[in-house]
Structures are given as C-alpha cells and as structure tokens.
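Problem statement: downstream parser choked on a complex file, so we are re-checking the raw output for the adenosine-5'-diphosphate run. The parser issue turned out to be on our end (a line-ending mismatch), but while we're here, posting the original submission so the record is complete.
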Amino acid sequence: MAVPAVKIDHLTKIYSADLGKKPMCAVDDLNLEVEQGEVFAFLGPNGAGKTTTIKTMMRLLFPTRGFVEIFGIPNLSVKAMRSVGFLPEQPQIYGYLTGREFLDFTARLFRLDRSTRKKRIDDCLEQVGLIKRADGLIRGYSRGMMQRLGLAQALINDPELLVLDEPMSNLDPVGRKEFRDLILELKDKGKTLFFSSHILSDAEMIADRVGIVNQGRLVNTGKLRDLIEAQIRSIEITFIMTPDKTAKLGFEQANIVQQDEHMLVRLENDADVQRTIGDIMRLDGRIVSVVPQKRTLEDIFMTELGG
Amino acid sequence: MSVLTIAMNTFRESIRNRVMINILLFAVGLILLSIVLGEWSLGEQIKVIKDFGLSAMSIFGLLIAIFIGIRLMVQELEQRTIYLIASKPIRRWEIVLGKYSGLALTLIVNVILMAVTLLVVNLIIEGRIDLGLLPAVFLIYIEILLIVAFALFFSSLMSPQLSALATLILYMLGHLTNFLYEYIRVFPDKGFHWLLKGIYYIVPNLEKLNLKMAVVDHVPQPPHVVAWATAYGLCYIVIVLILTAAVFNKKDLK
Ligand SMILES: Nc1ncnc2c1ncn2[C@@H]1O[C@H](COP(=O)(O)OP(=O)(O)O)[C@@H](O)[C@H]1O
Ligand SMILES: [Mg+2]
C-alpha cells in the first residue's frame, strides 16, 4: 500500500496565552490520513480548527503535540514542501507586484528554471482565468481575483498535493463552477486534494471522502456516499389535487404540506410510495414530481454537532 | 538561491515604496541645501558642509533603516503575506537572511545616492572632491547595517511601535557607551552599576563607527582603524542575525 499523501498523527495545537487571552486548544488530538489521489474535504463550522490544522500541516504553526507527514516525509523538512501547493484562507499578496511578477517570485522559490517558469506561469494564469489581468498591480485586484491568483501560485510547482483553505469562499457562482471543474481535472491527473470548507454543499459534488471537525476534534470521517446512503431515504411526492380529494388518501393532516394548489407528502418506504401514486392517479390528481430525499451533509452535520 | 529570490523581492518592494523614496529625496535635498548653510558660516564653510552632510547621512540612514526594516517585516507578518513564503520549500533562516540582504542592498543604494550628492556639493564649493570623506561614509553604512539588523530582531519579537522605540534607544545608547563607561569609572556604585555594565557590554559602541569629526578635520585614518571598526560591526551583525533567525525559526506565524 502506498504511503498516504497526508498523515496527521495525534495533532494537538494549543495557542499560547498572549496578552489578556487564555490558552486556547484549537486542535485536540486529531488523527487523519488522506490517501494518494483522493479528494478530501475537511468540514466544520467556523472556529472548528480547520485553519489551525492546515497551518500546522504547512508548518506555519508548530504542533504542541503530534506530527504531520506529507508523502511519508515529516512536514518540517523542506523536502516535504516541494510537492505541495497551498492556498491560505483569504490569501494576502504583495500589492506592489503584478500577478505575473508574483508568480515568477513563487516559481523561483521552487527553484524552477527560466523556461519552466515561463511555461508554468502562463499555464497557471490560463487555468485560473487570470491571464488578462496578469500584468496589473495586485493592489488593484478584487477579492475574487486575489483568490484566483492564490490558486495559481498554489499550482505553480505542478504539486502532487494541493492544500486549500476555504478555496470557494471569495468566488462568485461562475468562479465556483470553474473551481469545481479544475478540481476534477486535477483529480483526473492523479493529484491529491485536501480542502476545507464550512459550506457543506461545496464538498458534496466533488469530495471522495470527508472529515468533519468540531471544537478541534475529528468527529466523523467517511466516504461521502456511505455517510449519505447509510441514512433512511425519504421520498417526496408533489401533486395537484383538491383538498377534499387529498383527504381521501388517508394521511394525517399534519403530514401533508399545502403550497397554493400543490400538495406535498413525504414517505419513507417504497410500498407506500407505489400505493400513494396509484391512489392519486385514480382520484384524477396530477403528479408533479417524485423526488428521493438523500440525507445531506447538512443533516449529518447537524446530528454530529447536536449529539 | 532562495535567499537571493527573497532579497531581490525585498529590494524591489523598498524601491517601489513611496515613503522610502520620499525620505531619500528629502535627505538628498537637505544635503544640497547645505550649500546655503555654508554661506552663513563664513570661513568654516566647507567644514560645516561636510560635517552637516555626513550627519544627515547618518540620521537619514537611521530613519530609513528603522522605517523600512521594521515596516517590511511587520507588514509581512501582519498582512499574512508571509504564509505564501514560509509554506514554500524554504527554511526560516533563509527568509531572514534574504530580507536582510535585500535591505542591505536598498541601503547601499541610499547611501551611495546621499554620498554622491555630498561629493557634488563638495565639488561645487571647494572645486575638488575630498575622497577623504569615504572612510566615514563607509562606516556610516556599516552602522546603518547594524541598526537594521537590530530593527529586524526587535520586530520579530514585539510590536512595530515598540520595535521602532527600541531601535531608537539602541541607537542613542550606542553613541553614549563611552559616557557610560566614564560614569561607571568615576562615580561610586549606588547599586545599579550592574545594569549600566550590562548595557555597556551588550550595546554596540557606535562611536567606533563614527569617523565624521576625524575626516572633516583631516586627521589621517590608518587603514587598520577602518578595518577593525568594520570587523567589529560585522561581528555584531552576524550575532544579531543569528538571534533573529533563531527567534523566527520557532515562531508561530499566527
Ligand atoms: N492566533 C490565535 N490565537 C488564539 N486563538 C486562535 C488563534 N487563531 C485561531 N484561534 C482560535 O482557535 C479556534 C480554531 O480556529 P480556526 O482554526 O481558525 O478555525 P476554522 O478555520 O475551522 O474556522 C477558534 O476558536 C479560534 O478563535
Ligand atoms: Mg478557517
């Protein structure tokens, strides 16, 4: 079995007591492995400890206890960072440089030679859709452009592992779509992705596996599909029928939701669904939609956090 | 290689920094203005101009060192631009050394511009260029390098305001260590001599790097005086940089 792309072992991070602040345990004995080629979403509400974990992975912070390995190499060694790209939360970039100058600067930090630099800079600018504004000063960039430039610099060394902290947070809907496409493209190339989000729907369409963190602790990890399918699905039927006919279906009044002429009923097993659809048709009702309701990450989140 | 990359970027940052350019232009303007100053002081004209010019270089060098040294470092930490550097395959000491080298390069450009201005003024007034000023200019540069190393060190430990204050105090104490020594020698110990002695031994003696009086008065300077002073300054710089790197090496970039 290949070494994991990321191994976080008993990681604990306590922020020391600065002026007037109490010591704060932001990450509490966290264990996590991400396999090579996986798209892993690190989810949790604000203040859960996602950023602290990621900053410790990127050796911006030093662990109080525990350690991190990247492709089997301790993350504190310089070598570990060669194959990693990192996008911080709300990236801040030198205003006095142009986008292209900044990418050249980061490419040099990876010791890429001149011709590789030139090629990678153009490729990355293209990939994040920033080529037109590449020669403008970063000072004049919007937050969305800054996010794109941040992503471009994370890709500059063609990394095997991408670590992204809240990558979707400053993007508009078009940007989010482009970002998802980019993630899937990178996944196809066999790259490993580790990204955090407090917005669950961000993960739902792209992540192979998620980890849910709350108050510094990892409360659940799993294949997205397993986490969702383990739940009893319900099915929602929407139909159009008069209220008196609807009463003949034999449901409790409370289980029927009426919106204008639309009626909505939620059923939990297949037999009921078949029977109800038959009844509605017989009573000359019109079926509008039959939608299986999967348990969303949102639901999982609420149960994990609510206990 | 990474050190060079950081250094060149630091240099680029400082020459694109309007405030630094303004301080520099002000200094150059003031040295030019000293022609007028010389007019008033009759026979001593040329000495006054040289003395004034060298002092201006030292003071403005100090200002620029404090201003850009502290600002560049603090900005990097406070605006969190450092995240994108420290997460690259680079060691923390390489960042410190790169920043410092970039500042040293910026400062040498500053000092050269101020020195050229002074020599031009000198040429206009005296009809010749007094190359005897150069050893003093060189040691002013070493002094500024030393100050900026301390500025980096302080700003890796404390807030920008405190760092600026600490650097300024260091500069003043550094020029007063000879007095401190005399004080300890002459006056009886009232219980705090240990503190004065501590300061005396820790703070660099910046008067060792001050040749202004000597060159203005044409007291010949044997080469070994400049060489020793340079070695003295460089030793301090190396030690302060190592301490800064050590602090930075353990620092959580919050
Ligand atoms: N520099 C810091 N000093 C003290 N406490 C901090 C610091 N940064 C974050 N925290 C605290 O640590 C906890 C985790 O924060 P963070 O890792 O940013 O969470 P997330 O990224 O999941 O929103 C929060 O309670 C936050 O207030
Ligand atoms: Mg965060």
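For whoever reads this later: Chain B has one domain: 2-249.
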